[in-house]
Amino acid sequence: MSGPPSSTAGTEDDAQIVAQSLDQPELFARLYDRYAPDIHRYATRRLGDTSADDITADTFLIAFRIRSRYDVTRSNARPWLYGIAGNLIGKQRRAEVRALRALARTGHDPVAASWVEDTDSRIAAQGPLAGALAALSAGDRHVLLLVAWAELTYQEVAEALGIPVGTVRSRLNRARRKVRTALGADPAFVNDAAEVA
């Protein structure tokens, strides 16, 4: 469902960068370089190319403005950034649902098509999936897509959304069950994929 993440943690942890950027603001650009491609790809899949640039820019602008409140006990800023992006995407929920419905009609996902070799067979399957995603509640869809498209762990999703891990698990379970049912699978006979650690 997703391509390989474009960033790695590097040698300096994110908390150090955020803390140092309070005195040296230009250092915050390291977080942008590290995570902007991932945030942009995720926003593009959720809202389309037109909105992705704005979501990505606004995510890092907000993160920069509130960096003094960052919990430096968390060495990875990825969930924090996805949480900010998710809040911005949530404000554009109607556009996301419209994009998913268009994908359901056409079966064409330009983001996935750019890094999938055998797009013809994948395109045929994307229409029904997009329709199923559009039918999910915003909270369930957000959890499912953070796991599936952003490749966050359950703990990272919980941090990103400010909810307990148990809520992540229940939303993800409900979303998977609804998607399976919408795609014609019997949810009683399909096991969930193992949690990403």
TrEMBL record:
Belongs to the sigma-70 factor family. ECF subfamily. Signal peptide: none annotated. Gene3D superfamilies: 1.10.1740.10, Winged helix-like DNA-binding domain superfamily/Winged helix DNA-binding domain. Residues 31-96 form the RNA polymerase sigma-70 region domain. InterPro entries: RNA_pol_sigma-70-like, RNA_pol_sigma-70_dom, RNA_pol_sigma70_r2, RNA_pol_sigma70_r4_t2, RNA_pol_sigma_r2, RNA_pol_sigma_r3/r4-like, WH-like_DNA-bd_sf. Residues 130-178 form the RNA polymerase sigma factor 70 region 4 type domain. Keywords: Sigma factor, Transcription, Transcription regulation. This is Sigma-70 family RNA polymerase sigma factor. SUPFAM superfamilies: Sigma2 domain of RNA polymerase sigma factors (SSF88946), Sigma3 and sigma4 domains of RNA polymerase sigma factors (SSF88659). Pfam families: Sigma70_r2, Sigma70_r4_2.
